[in-house]
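Project outcomes to date are best conveyed with an example. Our students and postdoctoral researchers have been running inverse folding experiments weekly, and each run begins with a structure described purely in tokens. The record below, which covers 163 residues, was selected by the lab manager from last quarter's runs and is presented without edits.
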């Protein structure tokens, strides 16, 4: 699997009503399962809508040193002092990729759009453990906690086990 895109020398970013792709492909197998999980995660996030604006799969167009690009976080929750960025993954097998996508792509563009700090969350379905027995990511039981905790305590991407 390829490495996720990284923003380099971000110049501007904006939310767009539609993305660059016209056709909707019919997904099958694991890809379709991933989209269903992503929708389930977003549905679970709707309770946070009373704390701010909830965006499902918003398209973002940004310009960096290498030109114009597009990205699409799975979900965003914008509150008065922060933006929660949620990336849904079926399993933690690609946790490093999810963390890089959140911190090196979505976080910079979202922070420039909303002009507030971003909080990063990996929502996952299937749990894995590291060989040495340590948990691969600090988890929260409810993403509402990330809207209430002090921002300085929310530096690294956190995990949310969604069943």
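After processing, the design step wrote out the following sequence:
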């Amino acid at each position: 699997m390829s490495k996720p895109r990284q923003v380099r020398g971000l110049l501007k970013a904006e939310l767009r009503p539609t993305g660059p792709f016209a056709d909707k492909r019919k997904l099958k197998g694991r890809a379709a399962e991933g989209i269903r999980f992503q929708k389930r995660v977003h549905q679970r996030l709707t309770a946070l809508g009373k704390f701010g604006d909830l965006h499902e799969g918003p398209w973002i167009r940004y310009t960096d040193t290498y030109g114009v690009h597009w990205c699409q976080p799975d979900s965003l929750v914008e509150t008065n002092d922060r933006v929660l960025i949620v990336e849904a993954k079926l399993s933690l097998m690609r946790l490093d990729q999810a963390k890089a996508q959140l911190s090196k792509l979505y976080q910079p563009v979202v922070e420039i759009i909303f002009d507030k700090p971003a909080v990063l969350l990996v929502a996952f379905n299937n749990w894995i453990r590291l060989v040495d027995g340590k948990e691969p990511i600090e988890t929260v039981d409810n993403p509402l906690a990330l809207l209430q905790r002090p921002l300085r305590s929310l530096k690294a991407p956190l995990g949310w086990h969604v069943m």
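Residues 82 and 147 are 8 Å apart (CA to CA). The beta strands are 12-16, 53-56, 59-64, 67-71, 75-78, 83-91, 118-126, 158-161. The training component of this project remains on track.
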